[in-house]
Amino acid sequence: MPYGGRWREYKRAFNQLFNQTTVREYRPQLVKAARYLVKRLYNKPQDFAHHIRYSFGSSILSVVYGIQVAEEDDNYIATVEHALEGAEQGFRPGAFLVDFIPALKYVPEWVPGAEFQRKAAGWKKDAEAMKDVPWQNIVKDGDHTPVAMKLSELLSNVDASDFGEDGDEMSRNICAIAYAGGADTTVGAVHCFFLAMAIYPEVQRRAQQELTTVVGPNRMPEFSDWDSLPYISALCKESMRWQPTLPLSVAHRSLEDDEYRGYFIPAGSILIQNTWAILHDPEKYPDPERFNPERFLKDGRLDPGVKDVRAAFGAGRRICPGRYFSDMSLFITVASILHTFDISPPLDSESRPRKIEPAMGSGSMSHPLPFECSVKPRSKLAEAVALGDYSTEQR
Ligand code: HEM
Questions:
Q1: Residue 236, annotated as binding a ligand
Q2: If the chain, 395 residues long, is cut into consecutive pieces of 10 residues, what is the mean pLDDT of each piece?
Q3: Which of 7, 61, 320 has most ligand 1 atoms within 8 Å of its beta carbon, as the pocket-test mutant?
């Protein structure tokens, strides 16, 4: 989508709703989602990949619409995920003949071979449901005013009709984009964390030692512990760096002629940020293929001298507006899981740990290829959270 008019207003709203200060208001929702994730992992550890996705869905639906999802098989999550599956298929380059013969988009959908037309009509319906179904069920959740309720005020000075939309339509779009923008990316980062823990047991042990020392065995981690958990913070950064979910970010187009370090960039050029290369630069991150949170630490604290992993979120004015939300979400998820579970490779027929390779899918969105791992409770706390003996509310 070009940066201008309507999109500039969307981005302005995003920046107000998800900036570094505002996101702090969403902490209770994230704590709650992390506790439910512990519960689901305890009950069905083998379904960890499904739980990660479900957990992201539950936190974003509660932050954006105030909706509390069902513990399993929630209808809102199903509606939204169904729509995203369609979008994913439609955006996959080369998936349809129309990618190679653009004129096919003018062919009526009943013509044999016009599969894209038929599917596109279905996806459009799903996308409308994704925007409408949660929107029609916005609820104020205790002290939390959902993002959807704040939008009408935020957009009150925008004449949406300039963009061929009404104010409601803009708000509905912004809410749906929050889910879509964060879904695969945040889920991918948590997935990479699971993969790393199954491959690097010594990293996991260090992180758990820190949690035991700082948080102790009788309670769950909170956001107030964050500053006292530098190893966990470093581990989250390393999860973003090691296998970035958007290795080539999102393509940008230059609007005017420009110059960068002596290179002339004509207007209309497509520019691709090589995030993978930036985050695997051996000068900035020695031995870059190794998952090593220590690289971000010096004397037991985060080392400000190490290049930050912000590049994972893009750059310039299009930089990801969900980055602070995502940092918070990753921290509380990682801390809660490592405090309650051990993640390890599955055993082979002779009870030896199977070797797991860090294999990633190709494509613009890169997730770990499916892998198995064992997720076992490491303390009574996991059981207490799962049985509801430990509050799922923030303490
Ligand atoms: C690990 C988590 C995430 C990663 C790695 C990530 C990464 C990115 C990247 C690389 C871009 C493109 C930036 C550019 O064009 O330079 C982007 C854009 C965007 N992200 Fe994220 N993102 C994450 C989480 C989120 C979340 C949680 C949200 C919503 C709450 C979100 C909403 C968006 C939106 C709306 C855009 C489009 C911005 C624009 O085009 O101006 N993202 N993200």
A1: no
A2: 71 92 96 94 95 94 93 89 74 56 60 66 82 90 88 76 75 90 91 97 98 95 98 98 95 93 95 96 98 97 97 94 97 97 93 90 88 93 86 53
A3: 320
In the prediction, which pLDDT does 113 show?
Answer: 60
What is the C-alpha to C-alpha distance for residues 141 and 67, in angstroms, rounded to an integer?
8
Query: 279: part of which helix (H) or strand (E)?
Result: helix 275-279
Please count the structural domains in the chain.
1
Question: Is the CB of 366 within 6 Å of ligand 1?
Answer: no
249 C-alpha to center of ligand 1: Å? 9
**Which segments of the chain are extended strands (E)?**
252-253, 258-260, 263-265, 270-271, 297-298, 301-302, 341-344, 374-377
Atom nearest to 317 CA in ligand 1: 41
The answer to the question of residue 395 being in a domain is no
- Are the CB atoms for 208 and 378 separated by under 8 Å? yes
Q: Are 276 and 256 in contact (CB under 8 A)?
A: no
Residue 21 in domain: no
Distance 320 CA to ligand 1 centre (A): 4
User: Which of 58, 253, 313 for mutating ligand 1's site (highest number of atoms within 8 Å of CB)?
Assistant: 313
CB of 320 within 6 A of ligand 1: the answer is yes
Q: In the prediction, which pLDDT does 395 show?
A: 44
**Domain boundaries, position 33:** 26-56+184-387
CATH number for the domain including 199?
A: 1.10.630.10
> Is ligand 1 within 6 A of the CB of residue 186?
yes
Quick check: helix, strand or coil at residue 2?
coil
Residue 291 included in any domain: yes
Which has the closest alpha carbon to 116: 140, 95, 131? Answer: 95
- 204 lies in a domain? yes
Burial class, 194, CB count within 10 angstroms (exposed 0-12 / middle 13-18 / buried 19+): buried
Q: How far is the CA of 163 from the centre of ligand 1 (A)?
A: 23
What is the predicted pLDDT for the residue at 394? Answer: 44
Other residues' Cβ atoms within 10 Å of the Cβ of residue 100 = 8
What's the CA-to-centroid distance between 181 and ligand 1, angstroms?
6
150 CB burial (10 A radius; 0-12, 13-18, 19+) = middle
What are the φ/ψ torsions at residue 110 (nearest 5 degrees)? -80, -10
Q: Whose CA is nearest to atom 6 of ligand 1?
A: 313
